[in-house]
Amino acid sequence: MGFIQDLLASPPVPRQHRQEYDRLYQELLRIGEREDYLSERPGGTYNMQCRHIRTREIGKRLHDLGGVLLMDFAVRKVKRKLGKALSAHLEYAWTEVGDWMP
After folding, report:
1. Whole domain around residue 54: which residue ranges?
2. Domain count, the chain
3. For residues 83 and 74, is the Cβ–Cβ distance under 8 A?
4. What was the pLDDT predicted at 2?
5. pLDDT of 5-60, one tens digit each?
6. CA–CA distance, 82 with 99 (Å, rounded to integer)
7. Which letter, b or e, does each residue of 46-55 get, where b requires 16 or more Cβ atoms within 10 Å of its Cβ?
8. pTM of the model
């Protein structure tokens, strides 16, 4: 998808779940901006694989709502907003969530 299409596109989620998607996406942005999706050490908000626990929960819910297509849409939006490095961290944090494969 091109830059303009990404900006204007609606998430691939049923209309009745759009508000929930928007809330989850905003939470993903806050986590990325304040903490990062990965850590160098486990503990606190990070699991034993150093992946942000809430980020993984959000990924699971997005998968329930719209599968890998919705997760990929969220990653592309994070990339546009927070940059390539954080979107790569998000992709890795979601390893083994649903059908997700970075």
Report:
1. 3-7+18-93
2. 1
3. no
4. 57
5. 555 578 887 788 899 999 999 999 999 999 999 999 999 999 999 999 999 999 99
6. 24
7. beeebbbeeb
8. 0.89
SS3 call for 77: helix
The average pLDDT across 80-91 equals 97
Chain centroid, CA 31 distance in Å: 10
Residue 56 lies in a domain: yes
Closest CA relative to residue 95, chosen from 44, 40, 52, 43: 52
CB distance 54 to 63 below 8 Å: no
Q: For CA atoms 7, 13, 19, 25, give the dihedral sign.
A: negative
Quick one: tokens of 10?
Answer: 């609606």
